[in-house]
Specification:
Layout lengths: L18 H7 L7 H10 L1 H6 L4 H7 L2 H8 L2 H19 L15 E4 L15 H16 L3 E6 L7 E4 L5 E4 L11 E2 L9 E5 L5 E11 L2 E7 L7 H4 L10 H26 L6 E5 L6 H11 L4 H10 L1 E4 L10 E3 H6 L12 H8 L10 E3 H8 L2 E4 L2 H10 L15 E2 L6 H4 L2 H11 L1 H9 L14 H29 L19 E6 L15 H8 L6 E6 L7 H14 L8 E4 L4 H10 L2 E4 L11 H6 L4 E5 L2 H6 L5 E4 L9 H25 L8 H14 L5 H22 L2 H17 L4 E7 L5 E2 L4 E9 L8 E10 L5 E8 L1 E3 L7 E9 L4 E11 L26 E3 L1
Parallel strand pairs: 1-2, 1-9, 2-8, 9-10, 10-13, 13-14, 15-16, 15-18, 16-17, 18-19, 19-20, 22-29
Antiparallel strand pairs: 3-4, 5-7, 6-7, 7-8, 11-12, 21-23, 23-27, 24-25, 24-28, 26-27, 28-29
EC number: 2.4.1.1
Function: Phosphorylase is an important allosteric enzyme in carbohydrate metabolism. Enzymes from different sources differ in their regulatory mechanisms and in their natural substrates. However, all known phosphorylases share catalytic and structural properties.
Catalytic activity: [(1->4)-alpha-D-glucosyl](n) + phosphate = [(1->4)-alpha-D-glucosyl](n-1) + alpha-D-glucose 1-phosphate
Length: about 850
């Protein structure tokens, strides 16, 4: 018979064991080895059965065992030490506290998904894992962050395979009471709720669950509450599920409801109010609208409120393709806002203006969440240097008149949380060299350019470590493969061959990620005969472990999975290549350390960052990748290999795949496998070991989430906090009024005449020209603008590259025609074809960038004296 309701009956912990409950409820255990070891010792079999989840473990351990532990002095000493360590970690000063009070009092970090631990499955892929690593690194650094997300009752789907290799999805129901969460409650003990107004007089209510991620609270909104109708209860059912309206309601709850949850949390706990709001991808963009509404309720008009909100908002884009951005029909958005719905005090037309694609090439009837994010955030970034370039190009329509490299989108290259992803064996090897505390600091705070202590580790130790990790992976793969084949309907008698799958002494390649077409899961199958030769080579074989989920609605991705699975099912190669279903954090933590090579072959430049290769590198795994994302930025031959690309715009996609697959096979045959298998005088692959050493020494410090979060603090959060503090109500009114005046008067701004002190087409390197420029400012004055000389190398079309800008100064007042004269020096500091021009930008002390308004005036044809100067 089937139960109509389920719940967990928990044992009451004896008083000496009460700290176990606090340890289980703080997710620091997910990256703190001593805490995990303590829970494992409570009940080793129960620990394994619980999926290494302390909350589930404590719900299943017998009262007899608890009574035994309550009398075990050795266990109680360990418990006291671990609980004390958590207390010091949560309450003590860390990196952030050692800096001045100029840093933000608090930062709110919004993301649609968070990958903290497999025990809290609220992630689908890289965006969520990155968000989880961001929270963990912020905790390690002491950054006063508040995370905000949704609690999905089905999480993301679980993946199995049919007998013929087709992906099948399963959506297990998650009970929040069985997760490491606590309800946020009012002082009288009732659960806190936030509500959104829906059309037709309905409401969407949500409770707020709290996950404690070290020092960082993560607020998760859950619409599955009795006060909601059935439709509203399902708003937070699945991550990235449902149709357009479903997604819109999820994103309204995340953004608008999330701000309300943050305000409530700060009221209840005394946590400082955030000065900075960080929107991780466009899904949370509506948070800016709620903050505008808050300021309007305090007496500001819409435009000043918009300026005040922009000042303290950071927007991070993670997608390099327009198709990856959420876009909604304008009528659907309009239906959910205004007098009869949410944010009734804000005119719907103003809301729509923030997200409409009102630029060349845009879709005028679509509301674009990333466009809204950029318009509501004064600071924006991509997630690698290359992705910053791609983002500036992709969104350049929002800043007409500016070259893409001047579009105000910077980049902070992603990092990964080393304590989560580094195998304990790797950590212990580091601790043996420099001690536990220094190793911990190196992996969390970072700050050094090199991990020089790695040079002292003997070759033999590195090679034994790598083989040990490979051996662990082989055991893990066999166990998971056996379970997968049972799910596919195979009987035990059919599965004897699995005992011979993979070999701990064979070069092992890992490939695991989501399966959109651009990541090219099946590129390795392009020439199956060559791949078979590599897998079955008599002296230098390779073996490959593959994992990945296709989106439930992506049949193309599912076909790619099936194609790979069918190849891996071939009895000739199934001992050398495997596909493991249900890729997630628990599998990944075994996969990265156990591989020798991490393979990544996306279509360049469609990988925004691609952090899986970073996690592999931290375990001494070498990267074999297309130069995309972070690898384009940090690749060196010491760390691995770059797969050549054929990414010209006219390249036929099939031909491109053929060329790049052939390059991959060539690298494996001619460079990768010989280096792994060749032995030096001491019987070790010394050249391979040296690459592992260089990867750890030079790449390790770069790929840390601690480095990433410090960059966010220094380059984005702190300037945003300063801008937020400067944007008092009066300053916001001033800036909004000034922008309105400048926009309406800009048509009268002109560059009328440009002349220099030389009329010859050549000049000497190191000499200085004197520029004189006559400009018309119309109704504006010199305080409203900056007149700039822009100079640099020019190409055959006279386009300036690597431009340098120099402000020019006004000389005297306006002439009889109202024109102003500006002068300034132009230093000729490089040889070759050289050119200059002049432009006028709006200027105000509260602007973050001269490009912020998207306004620029440049000379018309014939105003200057030619195309510039040629240096010799």
């Amino acid at each position: 018979m089937k139960a109509i309701r389920r719940f967990t009956v928990r044992p009451v912990l004896p008083a000496p064991l009460r700290p176990l409950s606090d340890l289980a409820r703080n997710l620091r255990w997910s990256w703190h080895t001593e805490t995990r070891d303590l829970f494992q010792s409570v009940d080793p079999e129960g620990w394994a059965a619980s999926g290494n989840d302390p909350v589930r473990l404590l719900g299943s351990v017998s009262p007899g065992r608890l009574a035994e532990l309550a009398e075990d002095r050795r266990f109680l000493r360990r418990l006291t030490a671990v609980a004390g360590d958590l207390g010091d970690y949560v309450g003590g000063d860390r990196w952030y506290q050692e800096h001045s009070a100029e840093l933000p009092a608090a930062v709110a970090y919004f993301s649609p998904e968070f990958g903290i631990t497999a025990a809290l499955p609220q992630y689908s892929g890289g965006l969520g894992i990155l968000a989880g690593d961001h929270l963990k690194a912020a905790s390690d650094l002491g950054v006063p962050l508040i995370g905000v997300g949704l609690l999905y009752r089905h999480g993301y789907f679980r993946q199995t395979l049919s007998r013929d290799g087709w992906q099948q999805e399963h959506y297990p129901v998650l009970d929040p009471n069985e997760l490491p969460l606590a309800l946020l409650k009012e002082p009288d003990g009732t659960p806190t709720q936030v509500s959104l107004a829906l059309p037709g007089g309905r409401s969407l209510h949500a409770r707020v669950w709290l996950a404690q991620v070290g020092r960082v609270p993560l607020l998760m909104l859950d619409s599955d509450v009795e006060e909601n109708d059935l439709g509203e209860r399902g708003v937070t059912d699945r991550l990235y599920g449902g149709g357009s309206e479903h997604r819109l309601l999820q994103e309204m709850l995340l953004g608008i409801g999330g701000v309300r949850a943050v305000r409530t949390y700060c009221r209840l706990t005394g946590h400082p109010e955030p000065e900075v709001f960080h929107t991780n991808e466009g899904h949370a963009g509506f948070l800016g609208l709620e903050r505008i509404a808050e300021l309007c309720a305090e007496g500001l008009d819409f435009d000043p409120a918009l300026e005040a909100v922009r000042a303290g908002t950071v927007f991070t884009t993670h997608t390099p393709v327009p198709a990856g951005i959420d876009r909604f029909d304008r009528e659907l958005v309009a239906h959910h806002f205004g007098p009869a719905a949410e944010l009734p005090t804000i005119e719907v037309g103003r809301i729509l203006q923030l997200g409409m694609e009102t630029y060349p090439g845009g879709e005028p009837n679509l509301f674009n969440m990333a466009v809204m994010g950029l318009r509501l955030g004064q600071r924006a970034n991509g997630v690698s240097l290359l992705h910053g370039n791609v983002s500036r190009e992709m969104f350049s329509g929002l800043w007409p008149g500016f070259d893409p490299d001047e579009v105000p989108i910077t980049s902070v290259t992603n990092g990964v949380h080393a304590p989560t992803w580094v195998a304990p064996e790797v950590f212990r090897l580091g601790a043996r060299q420099i001690g536990v505390q220094r190793t911990e600091d190196a992996m969390t705070v970072g700050g050094s350019d090199r991990w020089d202590a790695v040079a002292e580790i003997p070759d033999q130790d590195i090679w034994e470590l790598r083989r040990n990790l490979r051996e662990q992976l082989v055991a893990e793969v066999r166990e998971r493969l056996r379970a997968s084949w049972r799910q596919r309907g195979a009987g035990t008698a059919e599965l004897g061959w699995i005992d011979g799958v993979l070999d701990p002494d064979v070069l092992t390649i890992g490939f695991a990620r989501r399966v959109p077409s651009y990541k090219r899961l099946t590129l390795m199958l392009r020439d199956r005969d060559r791949l078979m030769d590599l897998l079955l080579h008599p002296e230098r074989p390779i073996q490959i472990v593959v994992a990945g989920k296709a989106h439930p609605a992506d049949d193309g991705g599912k076909r790619l999975v099936q194609e790979l699975v069918r190849f891996a099912d071939d009895p000739r190669v199934r001992h050398r290549i495997v596909f493991l279903p249900d890729y997630g954090m628990a599998m990944a933590q075994k996969l990265y350390p156990g591989c020798d090579i991490w393979l990544n072959n996306p279509l360049r430049p469609l990988e925004a960052c691609g952090t899986s290769g970073m996690k592999a590198a931290l375990n001494g795994c070498l990267n074999l990748s297309v130069l995309d994302g972070w690898w384009d930025e940090w690749f060196q031959p010491d760390f691995g290999w770059a797969i050549p690309t054929a990414d010209g715009t006219g390249t036929d996609p099939d031909h491109r795949d053929d060329v790049e697959a052939a390059a991959l096979y060539d690298l494996l045959e001619q460079r990768v496998t010989p280096r792994f298998y060749e032995r030096g005088q001491d019987g070790l692959p010394d050249r391979w070991i040296e690459m592992v050493r260089q990867t750890l020494t030079l790449l390790g410090p770069k790929v840390l989430a601690g480095r990433m979060v410090r960059e966010y603090v220094e380059r984005l959060y702190t300037p945003a906090a300063h801008a937020h503090r400067a944007m008092t109500p009066d300053a916001a009114r001033e800036l909004a009024g000034w922008k309105t005046r400048v926009r309406s008067a800009w048509h009268g701004v002109t560059v009328d005449h440009v002349e220099t002190t030389t009329a010859t087409p050549t000049a000497e390197l190191g000499s200085t020209l004197s520029l004189r420029v006559r400009v018309g400012l119309g109704e504006l004055g010199p305080d409203d603008v900056e007149v700039q000389a822009v100079s640099g190398r020019v190409d055959s079309q006279d386009r300036i590259a690597d431009a340098a800008t120099v402000p020019l100064k006004p000389v005297g007042g306006p002439d009889t025609e109202g024109r102003w004269l500006y002068e300034g020096p132009l230093a000729l500091d490089r040889t070759g074809p050289y050119g200059y021009t002049v432009r006028i930008l709006p200027a105000h002390r509260l602007l973050a960038s001269g490009a912020e308004l998207g306004l620029v005036a440049v000379p018309s044809e014939g105003v200057g004296e030619g195309a510039g100067v040629l240096l010799r």
